[in-house]
Design brief:
The complex is a heterodimer of chains A (388) and B (342). Chain A is an all-alpha fold. Chain A contains 18 helices and 4 strands. Chain B has a two-stranded antiparallel ribbon. A two-stranded antiparallel ribbon of chain B has the order 2-3. The chains are: A mainly alpha (388), B mainly alpha (342).
């Protein structure tokens, strides 16, 4: 006890292990980030063996749930590039998720007769989604941001409809089943063993996070910052805003494509109802609640929200079913979640627009403008009261 | 539409007003004749009523966009809630279960339902603006768009909590089997009634925006908010009035939808909103005449698409129209330059 207390008082010796760790983390950000994710990935399955968590479900179910949460973390990381960093509102993000998933379904299922391995298909899925992102973004990114929002909203609705209605190519409502699972070095992934998928997901999330960090701190990332804060000023300073916005859109889409390929290979089934608007909305809520622009914040936000909705809300349902209290029993907490998301989204934008885990620059930006604007408008509105 | 300024942000061609209106009317009449020949009378009327609904919803989008440059994503859901308000009034207050054949009580019920639903939705619109949009009026553009999405979800889920997720049938109090013969063609009275109601509301809106003091305040606020404030316009009240009128029109559209289709469901507003927004963009966003015109055009496009066997692709066709308009004529048919303005 005294040793621990003593550490705080003593002047820290330079060159101690902690400083060396900090210095290493400063110099090798990507490596330390991947190591950090590996640590998190190793600890999570152990934490769920502890008391409050082990009463919900067994370790295998938890690990499987974490893998599914990872899909949403990937989606949130990708959408964060588009919405959080570049400031483009994409309301049809699930469409790219769907495109990635169907790409894998065509590449590796009895339906198409092809059997391309999972690993190259990750890249193919990312590429196809990015192409669609560019096709959709090219006409609309030249216009104001609001048009992009509505066009992506439409696109997100149309893609499932297209998959639903072109029965010949997609088997309509039934979707494409029997999709092949990944295998590595002769080891085949199975539905019953959640661990291989979990390890792959941890690796994908770690890579995606390192990728996001490097991207945000690159020349392109600074261009996105500039465009988000003032597009006109960014363009005047020589940034090709259309190209930068298209790249944000395409990179965000490709992340969703990877998530789609992974999800399809895990579920071994793709069907149009997996990609409805609620998916786009959920991911958007994750990004906003986590803290737009902040990679860690968004990842944690997505992870926590997914875990709450898939574990806690379900548990609440079964819990109240068992108690038999009439009113509480009839509430479907999973249905309620979208009402909660809606309220959370509005409350968040009104009271804490920077999110739960804010990005420092983003926070200053959102706070400064809101207060400056209030002052500017208050004066004329008040003086004009009696005149009209 | 009337000869007075049909736009929130008036644009004038170099052509004389009379000639310009003459040409436009001519184009509209020719287009209607072609549509009638192509669709046949039944589908033509169907397109007209559907278009009237889209047009009424599109007006709200375009007015709000014109005045605060916000795509009000919750607007389609306001339309949907309007349908549920009329459902509740009809079932719980009037105890209606089917067509009311007695003309006087039908008229009283209709007037009551329209007035109450429009007032209620107008109030809902004002409340939404006050709580979710006004605090963010000077925030970065993304913020109010996100709250609008949030409000949309809140409205949908409140309705789902109250009425459940399934389609509910709305009593069709206007007799659907009453017809009049026009030139040997049987025309449903309901369709005529709906088109007349919609046109009356649109003309009323044009007169309001063009001729009244508040309408002038709306136009000046849309043109330049700061300058309008300096001229003594109460900006907050003007924007609230805009939301009230836009939402009331959506409420009326909700009542009409119930009368015509006899159903209500909590997700109806989503696609209707998307289509109505497309109509507003097609007509030129910010332009009320354009929104009305766009609404009817979308109605005809959709009915036309289903009559050539693309019924299931309706939303995709409308979305295609939206993308094509944005690529080739982002200002819409009657709109002004909005292009890259940030």
């Amino acid at each position: 006890m005294s040793a621990v207390g003593g550490l705080g008082v003593q002047p820290r010796r330079f060159g101690g292990p902690r400083d060396r760790l900090d210095a290493f983390a400063g110099r090798h950000r990507s490596i330390s980030l991947i190591l950090g994710m590996a640590l998190v990935g190793a600890l999570l399955p152990l934490i769920v063996l502890l008391p409050p968590f082990n009463s919900f479900q067994g370790q295998a179910s938890w690990v499987d749930g974490f893998t599914n949460a990872g899909v949403f973390v990937l989606l949130a990381l990708g959408l964060n590039l588009v919405v959080g960093v570049a400031g483009l509102l994409d309301l049809g993000y699930a469409a790219f998720f769907a495109i990635g998933a169907y790409t894998y379904a065509y590449g590796a299922s009895p339906f198409s007769g092809l059997e391309i391995p999972f690993w190259p298909m990750l890249l193919v899925g990312a590429f196809v989604a990015a192409v669609f992102g560019i096709l959709l973004g090219a006409p609309t990114l030249r216009l104001r941001g609001d048009y992009l929002a509505i066009v992506t909203l439409g696109f997100g609705e149309i893609v499932p409809i297209v998959f639903l209605n072109s029965d010949t190519y997609t088997q309509g409502t039934n979707g494409i089943g029997g999709i092949y699972k990944p295998s590595i070095l002769g080891y085949d992934f199975t539905l019953t063993n959640p661990w291989p998928f979990y390890i792959v997901m941890v690796a994908l999330v770690a890579l995606a996070m390192a990728f996001c960090y490097r991207l945000i701190e690159s020349r392109l990332g600074r261009a996105w910052d500039a465009i988000r804060e003032d597009e006109l000023a960014a363009a005047s300073n020589g940034i090709n805003t259309v190209t930068a916005k298209l790249l944000a859109f395409a990179l965000g889409a490709s992340t969703a494509g990877i998530a789609g390929v992974f999800n399809a290979s895990k579920l071994t089934l793709v069907s149009p109802d997996q990609f409805l608007f609620v998916v786009s909305f959920t991911v958007l809520a994750m990004v906003v609640l986590g803290g737009m622009g902040n990679v860690w914040g968004v990842a944690i936000g997505a992870f926590v929200i997914y875990t709450i909705q898939s574990v806690v809300l379900k548990q609440l349902n079964t819990f109240f079913d068992r108690t038999g209290i009439p009113i509480l029993r009839d509430i479907d907490f999973i249905q309620l979640q979208f009402l909660l998301y809606g309220i959370a989204l509005v409350a968040m934008m009104l009271f804490r627009p920077e999110g739960l885990f804010p990005n420092s620059r983003r926070k200053r930006e959102l706070r400064a403008r809101a207060t400056a604007g209030d002052d500017a408008l208050a004066v004329p509105a008040e003086t004009a009261e009696g005149l009209e | 539409m009337t000869a007075t300024s049909g736009t929130l942000r008036a644009t004038r061609r170099s052509l004389g007003p009379a000639a310009s209106i003459g040409i436009r009317l001519g184009v509209i009449i020719v287009a209607l004749a072609v549509a009638l020949a192509f669709l046949g009378p039944t589908q033509f009327l169907n397109a007209l009523t559907r278009g009237a609904i889209y047009a009424l919803v599109a007006l709200g989008y375009t007015m709000v966009y014109g005045i605060i440059e916000l795509i009000n994503f919750a607007h389609g859901d306001v339309f949907m809630v309007g349908g549920f308000v009329s459902l509740t009034l009809l079932v719980n207050l009037f105890g209606a279960s089917g067509a009311i054949t007695e003309p006087v009580s039908l008229a009283i019920t209709l007037i009551a339902v329209f007035v109450v639903a429009m007032a209620a939705m107008g109030l809902v619109g004002v409340i939404i603006e006050r709580l979710a949009y006004r605090p963010l009026r000077n925030a970065p553009r993304l913020a109010p768009l996100l709250t609008a999405i949030g409000v949309s979800f809140i409205l949908q889920n409140i309705i789902q909590l109250i009425y459940g997720p399934f389609q509910i049938s709305v009593p069709q109090i206007f007799p659907t089997n009453a017809f009049v013969e026009i030139g040997g063609v049987r025309v449903a009275l309901l369709a005529i009634f709906i088109v007349i109601v919609a046109l009356t509301l649109m003309i009323g809106l044009e007169l309001f925006v063009g001729r009244t003091r508040l309408g002038r305040a709306m136009r000046s606020t849309a043109a330049n908010r700061e300058a309008a404030a300096l001229m003594g316009v109460n900006i907050n009240r003007t924007i609230a009035v805009t939301f009230f009128i836009g939402s009331a029109l959506a409420g009326a559209a909700g009542v009409i939808f119930g009368l015509y289709y006899g159903v209500a469901q909590f997700q109806l507003g989503f696609f209707a909103g998307l289509k109505a927004f497309t109509a507003a963009v097609l007509g030129g966003i910010g332009n009320t005449t354009g929104a009305a015109l766009g609404g009817f055009i979308i109605g005809f496009i959709e009915v036309g698409a289903s009559s050539v066997g693309l019924a299931r692709w309706g939303p995709a066709v409308v979305f295609g129209v939206l993308v094509i308009v944005l690529v080739f004529r982002p200002t819409g048919l009657l709109g002004q330059q909005l292009g890259e303005r940030a």
